[in-house]
Write a structure and sequence with these properties.
46% helix, TIM Barrel, globular, isomerase activity, alpha/beta, 8-stranded parallel beta sheet, Sugar phosphate isomerase/epimerase, 15% strand, 285 residues
């Protein structure tokens, strides 16, 4: 398992050449994959050379379209697929090895069965592009109740659910594990140990903490905290468990709001240092 500095999670949208150097200086082992550069192959490969020279690795690639969102119709999906074909080729040349999408836990139109089949058709096409380029592609479940109850029809919101989708779509990989979504879904130990038993199909680990003063069912999707700060999620234990169970992929702190505002105030360099300290705490819990 290796640590990642993912600028997007701290609302930084600037120069990844600088971010890569900041990550290396802070002792972080990887840098996030810059989506904007995936359509600029020469520039992307220039960054890849710097990443290699700094001894860094890549984090997890984001897709150009939220492929499973309710408002992404067939036309937008096909456009996104064409963009993904180009970007996945560039990412493979850069040495990127992991990618993911989240799966929305409710939708306004389709019953569970129809939605499952709809997802499988799309996942199969997206997954094939990534696998053709040597990139492991997985799915993230969403645990917060505000997402589950956003629309009329509930959908998968657990690790079992996204793994069922991955299996039906014949993905070689399967899932990303996020400590916050796991906590909101009830912090079930059987779910955690299922993930630990299948780290060979895991593409990413997101570590964070929950908002203080709220029960799991009261948490909101975009409001989280840095790991081991509010004391609601034992992210250190989970981080170490994945390390001891053979997980070899990227791990990233994903605190979102209101931490984003804090990191914007202190800047990218101080953020990298703070993230590095968080990884040290996770490893030494």
């Amino acid at each position: 398992m290796y640590t990642v500095y993912e600028p997007k999670f701290y609302s930084f949208n600037g120069d990844y050449f600088t971010y890569a150097k900041l990550a290396a200086d802070a002792g972080i082992e990887a840098i996030g994959v810059p989506s904007a550069l995936l359509d600029q192959e020469n520039r992307a490969l220039e960054l890849a050379r710097l990443v290699w020279e700094l001894g860094l690795r890549w984090g997890i690639m984001f897709t150009p379209v939220d492929f499973y969102a309710a408002d992404v119709d067939d036309t937008l999906f096909e456009r996104g697929i064409e963009t993904l074909k180009r970007q996945a080729q560039t990412a493979a040349k850069m040495g990127v090895r992991y990618a993911y999408n989240h799966i929305w836990s409710s939708n306004p139109e389709r019953s569970f069965e129809r939605n499952f089949d709809w997802h499988v058709r799309r996942i199969r096409r997206v997954g094939r592009i990534f696998e053709d380029n040597g990139i492991r592609y997985g799915l993230e479940f969403l645990g917060p109740r505000d997402v589950l109850h956003r629309y009329e029809h509930p959908f998968v919101h657990s690790i079992a659910g996204v793994c069922a989708l991955a299996d039906a779509a014949e993905l070689k990989a399967a899932f990303l594990f996020d400590t916050y979504h796991w906590y909101c879904e009830g912090a079930r130990l059987d779910d955690l140990y299922f993930a630990l038993a299948h780290t060979d199909r895991m593409v990413g680990l997101h570590v964070n903490d929950a908002a203080a003063g709220r029960k799991p069912e009261e948490q909101l999707d975009m409001e989280r905290a840095m790991p081991m700060t509010t004391g609601l999620i034992d992210a250190g234990k989970i981080y170490q468990l994945f390390g001891s169970h053979g997980y070899e992929g990227p791990a990233a702190c994903e605190p979102l709001h209101p931490s984003m505002e804090h990191f914007q105030e202190i800047g990218a360099q101080a953020t990298a240092q703070e993230i590095a300290r968080a990884y040290q705490m996770l490893a030494s819990r």
